[in-house]
Design goal:
single chain, about 180 residues, alpha/beta, Rossmann fold, 6-stranded mixed β-sheet, 3-stranded antiparallel β-sheet, 9 strands, binds 1-O-pyrophosphono-5-O-phosphono-alpha-D-ribofuranose, binds manganese (II) ion, binds magnesium ion, hypoxanthine phosphoribosyltransferase activity, nucleotide binding, transferase
Length: about 180
């Protein structure tokens, strides 16, 4: 385990197993629809790629980069687009892929945006859900694991841009918070 973590919540094997299960459900639900799978940078990099590899149906992939945290530890509530889709959303069955839903600000914003572009459908898959963090009314259609009210890092999820490369998910030890 990385020395800056307090504990591992999900090992790489547990994640792989759950991703496979989710991919089976998604493959069933989107059979014949050629969904547009939209990975939300940067947190969902690992999950998006691993999920795509487990799908047994045709799908397209695109990415959007949005941010509301920057280097801070709490959501600013204001979501900014850093990179937009390069695919036309109109008429598409879109599956937004996220690493975690916390306040819900990011996903509420994205769902409204893509619905407004007249996608045929917009659904959300999030590997993690932290229900205790929710500030707006939104939920994912597919969730991998529920997580407690703790500082989560790894498997794409960062603190101040660090720890994304860890192949497992764990709780950050706040003794290692960067002090200004
Ligand atoms: C994190 C995370 C989710 C979002 C969840 O992204 O990856 O996208 O915050 O929080 P919310 O439900 O409170 O909106 P962040 O904005 O830190 O950008 P990143 O993915 O590039 O790290
Ligand atoms: Mn993110
Ligand atoms: Mg972040």
């Amino acid at each position: 385990m990385h020395p800056h973590l307090k504990e591992v919540l999900f090992t790489r094997e547990q994640i792989a197993e759950r991703v496979k299960e989710l991919a089976e459900v998604v493959s069933r639900d989107y059979e014949g629809k050629n969904p547009l799978v939209v990975g939300i940078l940067k947190g969902s990099i690992m999950f998006t790629v691993d999920l795509l590899k487990e799908l047994s149906i045709d799908a397209e992939v695109d990415f959007m980069d949005v941010t509301s945290y920057g280097y801070g530890i709490s959501s600013s509530g204001e979501v900014r687009i850093l990179k937009d889709l390069s695919t036309v959303a109109h008429g598409r069955d879109i599956l937004i892929v996220e690493d975690i839903i916390d306040t819900g600000n990011t996903l509420l914003y994205l769902k409204k945006l893509l619905t407004g572009r007249q996608a045929k459908s917009v659904k959300i898959i999030s590997l993690l859900d932290k229900p205790s963090g929710r500030k707006v009314d939104i939920d994912a259609d597919y969730v991998g694991f529920e997580v407690p009210d703790a500082f989560i890092v790894g498997y794409g999820i960062d603190y101040a841009e660090r720890y994304r490369q860890l192949p497992y998910i764990g709780v950050f030890n706040e003794e290692f918070l960067i002090k200004e």
